[in-house]
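Quick one before lunch.
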Amino acid sequence: MDDAKPRHLGGSLPVPNVQDLAARRDELTLTPTLLDRVPTPLPAKEQEQIPVVDLGRLLDLAGGREEEAARLRWACENWGFFQVVNHGTPEETVEEMKRNVMGFFALPLAEKAALAQEPGEIEGYGQAFVVSEEQTLDWADMFFLLTQPPSYRDLRLWPSNPPTSKNCLENYSAEVQRVAGELLRAMAENLGARDHSDMTRLAASQAVRMNYCPPCPEAHVDRLLGLSPHSDAVALTLLLQVSPVPGLQIRRNGGWVPVMPLPGALVVNVGDVVEVLTNGKYKSVEHRAVVNAREQRMSTAAFHGAKFGGTYGPLKEVVKEEEARYRSVSVEEYTKLMLSSKLDGKNIIIVPKVNELKTEESLAKLSVATLASLKQ
Ligand code: OGA
Ligand code: NI
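Model of the nickel (II) ion complex:
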């Protein structure tokens, strides 16, 4: 069957539960001196902010399509990040999703642990991208589920508490997938591709990762992060800020720009796969999440990509063969490589075309570790 659920994609080494660790900490560590060490981002008005794209206008529901398409192009070429507003997802769906994510992480550890990742599997409650005992760990727990297409789901891992979780996740997942598809279609138009399906197929599969980051008074950006610097190895990510505490920062001009999500907006970022398809015209941008000293932080990322059975490679219609900087790779091979790497800055795992590694045979000889460490 075309849409059979992919199995044994790889997983992470088990790590201690961060929420539990944080809950058992001694209150006395909350001294003003420690709090002083937490860097405060500059006030929002002094910061450059990521562009905002109005999806309703982009779809020409009330005029302004050209202007919005230009804004999207600018965002993709110059930022790699933007917020999408007026995206047509009912407010109640978004609010219910937030309540459910908060409700899930507030459950007793034992109840969450019943949905723990199996060894070597990415789905479930636990951690991702831990590949060695020596690695510095992120100060966050996560809950990861494949959500689209429906045949990829493992419903045994879908929470039944809060009671509305399953239904809500299903609705939210479908809405966000639609938004991702509409954005990819507009990108295809901006790129001058006549066959939009080369881009829209990049929203055919979706995985949702709910992140939980407890407060940590000693959090110092150089030593402890909610999420290490990385670019997303997928095609397009749509992120929902679940709790009010911001924490996402993006790499720009050698510094880190905090993202301040607008109410109701989704934060969108171009992933490595879109960078490969556009031959670097649209770039995935490195980002990280910082820990808040006093408050817990929750976010939910929906990652989109093509279905298994397809490939990732430069768009034939827009990228000249001799100018292509990346080779094509099967979605399955790519996903396995991604899940066996650690988050380590911007690290496109598709082997660049411009070196001696051109044949399938030489590729097969490389170990996964070597491939994963090949920098762009
Ligand atoms: C991610 C991610 C940022 C955040 O899940 O890949 O970058 O703010 N999340 O949680
Ligand atoms: Ni990310």
